[in-house]
Specification:
The protein contains one helix and no strands. It is mainly alpha-helical. The protein is rod-shaped.
């Protein structure tokens, strides 16, 4: 009887260990997914920042051209 009880106890312990291992594996997979998602978000933000910088540079060049045109008009008078 004691042997059956020990085997039953060992089985429960093994199942509990497997369950916690599965929980740990699930948590690790979720963490890796979250990390991958964060990396994608960072890459998207970097792309947005590059595009915004390009737009800013174009706007600055346009502003400089407008300023040069204005100075030319003022000096012509």
């Amino acid at each position: 009887m004691k042997v059956a009880y020990l085997f039953a106890l060992m089985g429960v312990m093994a199942l509990t260990g497997c369950s916690s291992l599965n929980d740990q594996q699930r948590a690790e997979r979720e963490a890796m997914f979250d990390l991958h998602e964060a990396e994608i978000n960072v890459a998207e933000r970097e792309t947005d920042m590059v595009a915004a910088k390009e737009q800013l540079e174009k706007a600055e060049a346009h502003l400089q051209q407008m300023e040069a045109n204005f100075k030319e008009i003022v000096s012509a008078r």
